[in-house]
Specification:
About 0% of the residues lie in helices and about 55% in strands. With about 200 residues, the protein is mainly beta.
Length: about 200
């Protein structure tokens, strides 16, 4: 079992996704798997917790993202529209939207309640796979990192590209806004980092 991503929900729980397409909820006090979710028929690349409630999302090789509740082993919502692997996902702070990034070079923003794609971010965007996403704490900005060595900053309400940050020498695997949203950190395969 090769894990692709792990993420703490609190000191009590950890969630993971793996090559076998599953997501697993782990109890930290018992140090055991509590629930195994049937996320994807092929590798699950990433998992992310909703900032509100007991929801989490997975994304994978099968070109989909899926929404789960911790209480249900089957997805409660399926997000379909990408033309290639869905590599990354991130919730909006109010948990009403989910952003997904793909090998098809696009970022899609989905409405959680309906499962409908409400934004397609690709104009002037990444020139290679989208590998990382994060939404600022006020929900105004979306940061994306890609295999094109770039970090892009988007205005989420209009889906407009605000800025392209260059400087990485390798694919950008992680982007993260500071808690107040004033700073953005990114990490790449080349092991250097930038902050702006």
């Amino acid at each position: 079992l090769e894990f692709r991503r792990v993420l703490f929900r609190s000191d009590n729980y950890l969630i993971s996704c793996s090559q076998d397409g599953t997501a697993r909820l782990w109890g930290m006090t018992t140090r055991s798997c509590l629930v195994r979710y049937h996320a994807h028929a092929s590798p699950a690349w990433q998992v992310c917790f909703s900032p509100i409630g007991s929801y989490f999302a997975t994304c994978g090789y099968d070109r989909t993202a899926r929404l789960f509740t911790v209480a249900n082993q089957q997805p409660v919502r399926l997000f379909v529209g990408h033309m290639s692997d869905v590599r990354c996902c991130a919730f909006h702070p109010n948990a009403s939207l989910l952003a997904t990034g793909s090998d098809d070079l696009s970022i899609r923003v989905w409405e959680i309640a309906s499962g409908r794609c409400v934004r397609l971010l690709c104009r002037g965007g990444h020139e290679a796979s989208v590998c990382a996403l994060d939404v600022s704490s006020d929900g105004a900005l979306l940061a994306s990192g890609g295999e094109d060595h770039a970090v892009l900053l988007w205005q989420l309400s209009e889906g407009r590209l605000l800025r392209r940050l260059r400087g990485h020498l390798g694919p950008v695997w992680s982007v993260s806004f500071s808690a107040e949203g004033a700073q953005l950190a990114s990490a790449s395969r080349s092991e250097e980092h930038t902050s702006e």
